[in-house]
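Hi, here's the filled form for the chain we discussed.

Project: internal
Contact: R.S.
Residues: 68
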Amino acid sequence: MSAPLRVAQVAPVATSVPPPLSGSIESLTALLTDGLVAAGHLVTLFATGESRTRAALHATFARSHAWL
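And the returned structure, exactly as it came back:
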């Protein structure tokens, strides 16, 4: 097997990843991010601090702007 990729995913700050109630771009970002981690890649997700992920999370904001 080749070396794992180093991947950065950048999510919108409108809501957390995955979002609590919607099937939006944040849901797609969550699925893609966790799938890349499951495949053995080193992934960092740049998203709000309330996000849940199997990747390394770098919080760009503590909470989504929906809470401001």
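Let me know if anything looks off before we file it.
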